[in-house]
Amino acid sequence: MLVVDKETFEPEVLKAEGTVLVDFFGDGCVPCQALLPHIEALEKNYGDTIKFTKLNTTAARRLAIGQKILGLPVIAIYKGGTKVDELVKEEATAENVEQMLKKYS
Prior knowledge:
The protein is an alpha/beta fold. Helix content is about 40%, strand content about 30%. The chain contains 4 helices and 5 strands. It has a 5-stranded mixed sheet with strand order 1-3-2-4-5. Helix 2 (about 30-45) packs parallel to helix 4. The longest helix has 17 residues, at about 30-45.
């Protein structure tokens, strides 16, 4: 899983070819930590068609706000530099993430 930051978010996500998943997480976000192993497991199944990335919003607060990330966790799908789908807070479960990935893989 590729770790992106405010320097690499644009080239790796917004200018990427194809579909990109971004796991927005923050320091001390317990639901984010609980979800991460599930996202990493899903990467094994979907990583050949979807690029998996994660962004620590604690270290990139302005970027997160610019992407309208107001609560955590957020799992978002980007295509052609645009956010096309996202799961926020309670919706961000392993099952829902897999359903979302199936739509875009």
